[in-house]
Design a protein that fits this description.
Layout: E1 11-12, H1 14-17, H2 35-43, E2 80-84, E3 90-92, H3 94-99, E4 103-110, E5 133-142, H4 143-150, E6 158-169, E7 172-181, H5 182-185, E8 193-198, E9 201-202, E10 212-214, E11 227-233, H6 240-245, E12 247-248, E13 257-258, E14 265-268, E15 273-274, E16 281-282, E17 286-295, E18 301-307, E19 315-316, E20 318-319, E21 330-338, E22 341-351, E23 376-380
Parallel strand pairs: 2-11, 16-23
Antiparallel strand pairs: 1-7, 2-3, 4-5, 5-8, 6-7, 6-11, 8-9, 8-10, 12-13, 14-17, 15-16, 17-21, 18-19, 18-22, 20-21, 22-23
């Protein structure tokens, strides 16, 4: 990115770029995944579910969603500008930012569209199943400290964050930009970070090098990567990613409600070993331990239940302590004795506010916040019968 380039405003260029930037749409009846969705799935990647075993996700396994291109950023010339309705504008180079007091927070991030590909009809976009998640130790400067240095004006209401990634979406040319209410930006619990390190090392390019925003408890669209601008405003931000893209809508013309905090979710570490194509798990008969992770943005997870019969009955799992990491996932485990036959494993999380995962998901046009329970097909062969996966009966 050219460090001296001003952020491009959201510009509707539909007439000029209509042939390459169509409107949002929902897949038709029986429509399979198209080449555009497959291309998105090859650019972006989810967490392999067996990597749920890691308390902290290695950077190469943590989920990645890049809206446009990974920008080429020169760390020597990069600058972070803090301006707008402030008493004194600020500008930081990377070395200056790293020299400021820093903290490390373990935070679980989840893409707002996680689970989109499981909806019917399917919103056409990045086709996540349930792998759009990861947890890392993020190190950076608390945003509230940077804002305190600048001194927000009394009429300030929001803080707008600009990333260096630039593109066009639904006919709107833009830099990726999102905002937070001033009270969230200034908050201490959770504390928003301007992060420059992931798991103790400089941010990898795909995770926002040199600096990104980390907003604990919020879906991934709020964690602006390749951060280059922070602007304090008096009016609500009406940019594309705020007012158009990330909204819960039933119909295309609705204003909708904003997508914000992460709904509760539990995922299983897939037991046994998989079939290559179907991903059906194969387990040996006998006792084993089912385990996984659970998290929620609005309130701490207080319970996880597990079903081994597709949701017909449930048993409480043992939930591990959070270890002081309120904004990270928590481990859970439960014993199970596998018997020959086909089984469907599932888990559901409940948080302190009473929110729990549904068995069927209310639909929305963007496919956002889809936290319906995960279903993991498992086959346990009968040693005496010599049956193989897929043989039926």
């Amino acid at each position: 990115m050219d460090a001296d380039r001003d952020p491009a405003p959201d510009r509707d260029v539909t007439a000029a770029l209509g042939p390459v930037s169509g409107p949002a749409r929902v897949a038709g009846p029986g429509e399979g995944f198209g080449a555009e969705e497959i291309a998105l799935a090859t650019r972006n990647h989810g967490l392999p579910l067996e990597a749920l075993r890691y308390e902290v996700s290695p950077p190469g396994l943590h989920y990645v969603l890049v809206h446009y291109d990974i920008p080429a950023v020169d760390a020597d010339t990069w600058r972070l500008r803090l301006d707008g309705l402030v008493a004194a504008g600020q500008e930081f180079g990377l070395a200056e930012l790293r020299a400021l007091p820093a903290v490390t927070r373990r935070v679980t991030m989840e893409c707002a569209g996680n689970g989109r590909a499981l909806l019917s009809p399917r919103p056409v976009s990045q086709p996540w199943l349930v792998e759009g998640v990861g947890t890392a130790d993020w190190t950076g400067v608390p945003l509230r400290l940077l804002l305190a240095r600048a001194g927000p004006a009394p009429q300030a209401r929001e803080v707008v964050f600009t990333g260096a990634d630039h593109g066009v979406e639904r006919g709107v040319e833009q830099d990726y930009r999102r905002s937070l209410p001033l009270e969230v930006a200034l908050g201490e619990d959770p504390e928003v970070l301007v992060a420059h390190a992931m798991n103790g090392r400089p941010l990898p390019p795909q995770h926002g090098f040199p600096v990104r925003l980390v907003v604990p408890g919020w879906y991934g669209m709020a964690h602006v990567k390749w951060l280059c601008g922070i602007t304090v405003t008096a009016e609500p931000f009406a940019g594309f990613q705020q007012a158009v893209a990330y909204r819960y809508r039933q119909e295309a013309g609705e204003t909708g409600d904003p997508v914000t905090r992460i709904a509760p979710r539990a995922l299983l570490v897939p037991p046994g070993f998989p079939d290559f194509m179907s991903r059906t798990r194969v387990v040996r008969p006998g006792p084993l331990v089912l385990e996984g992770r659970a998290w929620s943005g609005p309130a701490p997870v207080t319970a996880v239940e597990v079903s081994t019969d597709g949701g017909a009955s449930w048993r409480p799992a043992e939930l591990a302590p959070d270890g002081g990491h309120r904004w990270a996932w928590r481990a859970w485990r439960i014993p199970w004795t596998a018997v020959p036959g086909h089984h469907v494993l599932t888990a559901r999380a409940t948080d302190a506010a009473g929110r729990t995962q549904p068995k069927s998901q209310p639909w929305n046009r963007g496919g956002f916040g889809n936290n319906l329970v995960q279903r993991v097909p498992v086959f346990c062969p009968d040693p005496a019968g010599g049956r193989r996966p897929g043989s039926g009966g």
